[in-house]
Amino acid sequence: MEEEAINQSVNIGEVILDTINSLCGSLFSSIDKNIMPELDKLLFLDTDIIKNTKLERIVGTNLDTGLLVLANSLLTAFVIYYAIRRFTSFYLGNDVESPYQFLVKTMIIAILVSFSLSLCSAIVSFTNETSNFICELGHNVTGQNISFQTMVKKLSSNKQDEFNMFSFEGILTSMISVSSFSLMLAFAFRYILTKVLIMLSPFSLLCLINKSTSGIFKSWLKSFFSLLLIQIIISIIMVLVFAIIKEDDSSMFGKLMLLGSTFALIKSNQFVKEFINGTGISTDFNSGIAGLKSIIR
Fold it and tell me: Would the pLDDT of 94 be above 60?
């Protein structure tokens, strides 16, 4: 009787372990299949982020459509504000720039505001071409397609029925899947912030008209560049990972390198912020909102 009870308890334990391994294996396999293809789209932004009919309608393609209508109204307000300051400067003795300088500057900025989407598209295109060049260079050196999906596929050789959650390799595999999910959330937030900054581009350009508001444009530009510069850092990190890990390497070292590279990608924004003297918007939600608020201070 005692032996039967022991055998039954052992069988129950094995069933529980097999069930946990099966559930975890299915979960992590689903994460890998569904998240990895989307990660490359979120990590590497191109001009498709701007060539969106709804975004173009919101911002506006003509001076009498979208947010450009509001931008033109603010431009008129800046002109009226300058006229008032210019008029009162004769009585108060304030130092105000000459009408000629103001009109030339205003005309240039008005043109830039009208083509704000094209300017943002050019910046995004330059960043995308730079990251593509780095990835293509890595492809020529390693002979492999530089992408996150490829990087995970070459290291996930374990079959689902062989997955063991309570082994060191199983822990590494689960950490890779969880960190990949965190990476997707972080860069999905970055994707949204990039679109928000593109929508704010006409108003940030308008702030160059007045010296007291020019700091808003500088904050916007640094934040926009910091979000795009991450893409170049990501390309460099991924090329290094492909150069270090051998092709079809499913060893423990390869999985450790993949896990380390995922954390490096998550922390890439922190490096960019330090690189540009702590300025920019973090892909972390709370600090990202704080960075977005700094633009309108």
Answer: yes
